[in-house]
Amino acid sequence: MDTAFCESLSAVFRRVFASQQAILAGLSGGLDSVVLLHALRQWQTAERPALRLRAVYIHHGLNPLADDWADHCRTFCDSLSVPFQVCRVQVDPRKKGIEAAARDARYQAFREVIAPDEALVTAQHLDDQSETFFLALKRGSGPAGLSAMPEQMAFGANPLIRPLLSFSRAQLEQYAQYYQLSWVEDDSNQDRRYDRNFLRHAVLPQLNARWPHFAQAVSRSAALCGEQEALLDELLLPELMQLTDADNGLSFIPLLSAGTAKRNGILRRWLKHCGVQMPSQHQLALLWQEVALAKPDAEPGYYLKPVTIRRYQNKLHVTEKTAGLSDYCLPWDLHSALQLPDDAGILRMAETVTTQDVASVVRPPRPDEQVTVRFGLQGHYHICGRDRGRSAKKLWQECGVAPWLRERTPLLWYNDTLIAAVGVFVTKEGEADEAKLMIMQEKTTPRTGLQSYSGR
Description:
Helix content is 38%, strand content 18%. By secondary structure, the protein is an alpha+beta fold.
C-alpha cells in the first residue's frame, strides 16, 4: 500500500475536520464511499476517537438490487462498528430527468436526517471532478459552473465536505485491494445513455491515456474558475446586499446604467441567493428585457421553472405559484396562535404592546364582536393616517403591497367590520385608544428566499 497516499489522506482529514464534532457519511456501497468510510473509521480510531461517525444509505428504489446494496452497507458498517441507517426516498423524474431527480431526492434525504452538529461527507473524487467539469462545459456554463465541486461548502446550516477530491479512482482501488474491501457495482453505471457514464467510459479514458495528468489539470482549471467566481462574489456582494430589501426584492434601477457583465453578475447572484436554478445567458437576457425593461404600466413576469420573476415598484421579485385564500374565513379567539393556510404564516397576539409598529396595534374586540381572519379585500375603507377613504386597490398600492401578496395578507375583522390588514394598515374602526392589542404575523420560512451568502 502506498504510504504516501495514506499520509496525504490523513492530512486532508485533519485539515477539513479540525473543527468538526460529528460526521454523517453518505454510503452507497460503491467503491468510493466504502473507501471513504473505512479510511474515516481508521483515522477516527487513531487520531480523533471523540469524533462521532455514522453512515446513511439513501434507498432510491430505482434498482431491483437496492435492498441487497442496503444489506451490504449494513454489514460493512457492523464490521466497522459504525452506526448505520437506511433512508428511503421517492424519485420523480418527470421534471428534471432521472439523474437530477435522484440527486435532488438524495440531498433532500440528507437534509432530513442530518443532525445540527454534523458535517455531511460524500465521496466524490478527482475523476468525478473531471466529469462534472465536462458536463458543465457541455451546458455552456460560465466560471461558476466550471468551478465544479468545491471541497467544502454550506449545506443549509451544516457543512458539506468532499475530502477525496484530490485523489483518483485508481488510488481508491489500490486502497480497497490492500484492505480487502468489498463493494457493490451499480450496473446502471455502465449505461452510456447517461451523459456522465458516456464521459466516464468513452471520453475521459482517452484523454487520460494521452495526457496522464489530465485529471489534475482539469481540477486546477476548476479551482481557478472557483477563485475567479469567489473574487466576483467578494466584489459584487456588497452592492447586491444594498440593492436587496428585507423581502428579497431587488432594486434594478441602479443596474440600468451598469455594464452588461456587471448587471448579469448581480442578477445571477441574486437568483442564486433566492434558490432559483441558474438561467442560461439567453434566459437572463429575456428576463431583463421582458421584466425590468417592460412598459411602466405593465405587470410583467418571466417564468423560470418553477418560479416567476415579477416587477413591482422598481424592484424584481421571485414569486412562487400559491393557492388563492379568498374563500377562507377563520374564527380566532386571539389567545392562541392561528395557523394560516398554504404556508401563509402564523398570527399571534403579542403579550406586550410596543409603539414601533402602529400597523399591528388595534383596539380589543367588544364582548359582542366575533373575531375572524379573512383574505382578499374589496370595497372602500378609511385607514389611520389618511384624510379620507380609499378603494382597496388604492390602499394596497399606497402601502406598497405587491399584487401577488394582496390575497395572502391576513385581514382582521370584528363581526363584519374590517379592523386591520395585519402589518400593513389599521382602519379608523380598529384604531386603538387606551386599550391596545398587538397582532403579529410570523412568516413561514419562504420556499424561495434570499439565503445567507455562502459562496459556491
